[in-house]
Amino acid sequence: MSAALLVGYSSSSSSSGSEGEDGSGPGPRPEPGAEPEEGGSRGCRHPPSPPPLPRLPIPDSVLNMFPDPEDGIVDDIEKHGGRIRTFPHERGIWATHVWVPYEAKEDFFDLLDLLMTQARRVLPRLVKMEEFHVSLSQSVVLRYHWITPFVQSLKSRMAFFHRFLFTANQVKVYTNQEKTRTFIGLEVTAGHAQFLDLVSEVDRVMEEFDLATFYKEPSFHISLAWCVGDVQSELKEQAIQGLQLS
């Protein structure tokens, strides 16, 4: 048999899919001396790709599930009793406030009802608080990924404190820092030093996260009622003297 008619194949099973030496693609090698077909190609010819299918429109109900993050959020103050935010809403941040909860008993609510009756004679729009506490920090904002380390740091610093007794029996009027709300509260008259020790540790945590610390000379208190606006002078002049506890 003439050597010109022999075609060599590799023993590798993958050789049928490999490119030829000239990079023209898979296919049998031409016989020595043979001329390629005029205008032809040594590689395999593939049929043309079909045109892309048109995309279906996304329903509005689905688009509304994922609003544009750049869209601003408008607060409806009527849904929050007329209260105004102390800082603008921003996605990914969480309002944070550290406090000691106060578990009110029946006699506390009896006293609260008495105080509210007298205070509303001067300011009928006063709203009774639903939960009671003593604040240990200002309101600050945390990034979501700060929450876990922030809580862990607070827990580690508070772990060595013991329970203590305190007395709150002095009626006093307060406003928030922005003067957008007024509060009637019971000021702490015994236990002030222990609360200062707690605030000292809370402030250290705030400093770790570059957040605002508490007031330099805090008046610890339990808020009893609130209203929108700065009516501190009006309440002090007309109601506080009659509300003082004996």
TrEMBL record:
Which reactions are catalysed by this chain?
Answer: a 3'-end uridylyl-adenosine-RNA = a 3'-end 2',3'-cyclophospho-uridine-RNA + adenosine; a 3'-end uridylyl-uridine-RNA = a 3'-end 2',3'-cyclophospho-uridine-RNA + uridine
For this UniProt entry, the molecular function terms from Gene Ontology, in alphabetical order, are: lyase activity; poly(U)-specific exoribonuclease activity, producing 3' uridine cyclic phosphate ends
Alphabetical list of Pfam families matching this protein? HVSL
- Keyword Secreted assigned to the entry: answer is no
Per its UniProt record, what InterPro entries does this chain match?
Usb1 (IPR027521)
Q: Where is the composition biased (Low complexity)?
A: 8-18
Q: Where is the active site?
A: 133, 221
Q: What is its main location?
A: nucleus
Disordered as annotated region, ranges: 1-61
Name the keywords, alphabetized.
Hydrolase, Lyase, Nuclease, Nucleus
Q: What is its EC number?
A: 3.1.4.-
Signal peptide limits: none
What are the GO cellular component annotations? nucleus
Give the record's GO biological process terms. Answer: U6 snRNA 3'-end processing
The entry's function note states:
3'-5' RNA exonuclease that trims the 3' end of oligo(U) and oligo(A) tracts of the pre-U6 small nuclear RNA (snRNA) molecule, leading to the formation of a mature U6 snRNA 3' end-terminated with a 2',3'-cyclic phosphate. Participates in the U6 snRNA 3' end processing that prevents U6 snRNA degradation. In addition also removes uridines from the 3' end of U6atac snRNA and possibly the vault RNA VTRNA1-1.
Q: Which family does the record claim for this protein?
A: Belongs to the 2H phosphoesterase superfamily. USB1 family.
Subunit and partners: Interacts with PLRG1, CDC5L and PRPF19.
| Alphabetized PANTHER family for the sequence | U6 SNRNA PHOSPHODIESTERASE 1 (PTHR13522)
For this entry, the protein name equals U6 snRNA phosphodiesterase
Q: Which organism is it from?
A: Phascolarctos cinereus
